[in-house]
C-alpha cells in the first residue's frame, strides 16, 4: 500500500485510503509500521468507508507505534467517520481532532 504522506517537522501526516476495511487492514498496518518519525496524524477526511477490520487496524497501528515510542492521532472533518469513532468508543482510545493542523500541533 502506498499512501500519500506529508511531513511537518517530526510529524508525518498519512492520508488514509478511500476504503479502510478487511481487504486493506493488513497492508495498512504494515505501511504504518514503516513510518519514521513515529509521530503520525492519520487524515480520514478522504476515507469513505471504515469497517470493523479497519477500526481494529487503527488500534493495532496505535499499539505498534506506541511500542516504538510514537503515537497516532486521528484528524477528520468527515461527520460519518467521526460518528463511527464515537459509536464504537474509539474516540476515547484514539485522540481525534477536527483538522490536521490541530492534530499536528498536539504533538508539541
What does this structure look like?
It is a single chain. 41% of the residues lie in helices and 23% in strands. The protein has 108 residues and is an alpha/beta fold. Strands 1-2-4-6-7 form a five-stranded mixed β-sheet. The chain is globular and about 30 Å long. It has one domain (5-105): STAS domain (Transcription Regulator spoIIAA), CATH 3.30.750.24. It has four helices and seven strands; from the N terminus they run βββαββαβαβα.
CATH class: Alpha Beta
SS elements, strand count: 7
- How big a fraction of the residues is strand? 15-25%
Instruction: Describe the oligomeric state of these chains in a short phrase.
Output: single chain
End-to-end span in angstroms? 29 Å
Per DSSP, the total helix count is 4
What is the CA-atom radius of gyration, in angstroms?
12 Å
Number of domains: 1
How would a textbook summarize the main sheet?
Answer: 5 strands, mixed
Q: Give the class from helix and strand content and strand pairing.
A: alpha/beta
Question: Could you give me the name of the CATH homologous superfamily?
Answer: STAS domain
Mean pLDDT: 94
Low-confidence stretches: none
Could you list some keywords that capture this structure?
108 residues; alpha/beta; Transcription Regulator spoIIAA; five-stranded mixed beta sheet; two-stranded parallel ribbon; 4 helices; 41% helix
Architecture blueprint of SSEs:
Elements: E1 5-8, E2 11-15, E3 19-20, H1 22-33, E4 39-43, E5 49-50, H2 52-67, E6 71-75, H3 79-88, E7 96-97, H4 100-105
Concise summary:
With 108 residues, this protein is an alpha/beta fold. 41% of the residues lie in helices and 23% in strands.
